[in-house]
Amino acid sequence: MVARKTTKKNVTKKRVAKKTTVKKKVAVKRGRPTKYTITISKKICNQLSMGMSLVEITKPSNMPTRMTVYNWLQTPAHEDFLYRYTRARQEQADSNADEINYIADNEALTPLINKKGDIVYINKKPVMVATKESIALAKLRIEARKWTSSKLKPKKYGNNYKHEVELKEKPINEMTDAELEKELEKERKKAR
Fold first, then answer.
1. What's the half-sphere exposure (Cβ side, CA atoms, 13 Å) at 29?
2. Contact 154, 124 (CB under 8 A)
3. How many other C-beta atoms lie within 10 A of the C-beta of residue 192?
4. Which letter, b or e, does each residue of 57-90 get, where b requires 16 or more Cβ atoms within 10 Å of its Cβ?
5. CB within 8 Å of 158: residues ≥ 6 apart
6. b/e for 124-142, b at 16 or more Cβ within 10 A?
7. How far apart are CA 58 and CA 42, in angstroms?
8. Domain boundaries of the chain, sorted by first residue
């Protein structure tokens, strides 16, 4: 076997040969959808209005990420989505208010368990009792929904505090010079 001398020309030929033999990779769709579609936007809004959080909605791999949804909301081309999303958030406040009553009426109770660890039944129905833990959990869930509703729809569910101040005397800008002199005289007497 005769050893060939490596020249620039031979190296260049090898590089060209390597470049031409590289196969083109076919683009495979991977990851979550990022392309805006009305179908996906309506699905997101429907689930929001039913009381689901955006975190829950965007968990499945066939749904866009939260960041993608937030980007859609900021894009002027998707104003229809912004409108539907805002409306869905307002409806979510009403849905949360409905859930509050359900939680208070039903979910503060847990099945009664006997000393053996079995559930106690009467007429084939479990006996339901309120425990400290179940009440605390129900309270937490209710408070979370109340807070969310008050932020989503503050006029309807927020704490409305009105502060009214009644002035006994006229404001300074409405007083005449004589009235101002009297007020100054009163203040001077108090200072002495």
1. 6
2. no
3. 4
4. bbeeeebbeeebbeebeeeeebeebeebbeebbb
5. 150, 151
6. eeeeeeeeeeeeeebeebb
7. 13
8. 30-156
Q: What is the pTM of this model?
A: 0.58
CB 159 within 8 A of CB 151: no
Longest alpha-carbon distance in the chain: 122
Short-list 29, 39, 35, CA closest to 64:
35
- Distance, in Å, from the CA atom of 102 to the CA atom of 49, rounded to the nearest integer, reads 17
- Token pair for 88: 């869905």
Beta strands 125-126 and 128-130: pairing type? Answer: unpaired
Q: Does domain 30-156 have CATH number 3.30.2000.30?
A: no
CA separation for the pair 63, 41 (Å, rounded): 10
Taking only the tens place, the pLDDT of each residue in 26-56 is 555 566 667 889 999 999 999 999 999 999 9
Contact by Cβ (8 Å): 110, 68: no
Give the pLDDT score at 18.
55
The string of pLDDT tens digits covering residues 97-118 is 899 988 888 887 888 888 888 9
List, in sequence order, the alpha helices (H) in 108-176: 132-152, 154-157
Report the alpha-carbon distance of residue 151 to residue 97 in Å, rounded.
12
